[in-house]
Amino acid sequence: MKILQVIPALAPGFGGPTNAVLGLSAALSRKDQKISIFTTDADVESGLNAPIGRTSDYQGVKVFYFPVQFPRYYKFSLPLFMALARFIPQFDIVHIHSLFQFSTQVASYL
Q: Which of 31, 55, 79, 101 could bridge 66 with an S-S bond, Cβ 3.0-4.6 Å?
């Protein structure tokens, strides 16, 4: 099964949601599920030093970071929107994390 996890940010400073998504994704990957995470490079204070434009691997999970733009508090990212619009149809399940953030609303809409 192909599962997409969508979360506004994976920076360690955001605490619980970051840990939950990474832990859940790694566990599902060990059960032979194909897991991808779409997120932004947002961090608590400034931008996360994340590999924009290429796939990152976390314990068998493909992680895709997209640049966060203005307004940063909303985690807005036009590149994330375009990727979600293109790739959501390729997944069996889309698991959306967080509330009141750009990625949540866009993924729900799509």
A: 79
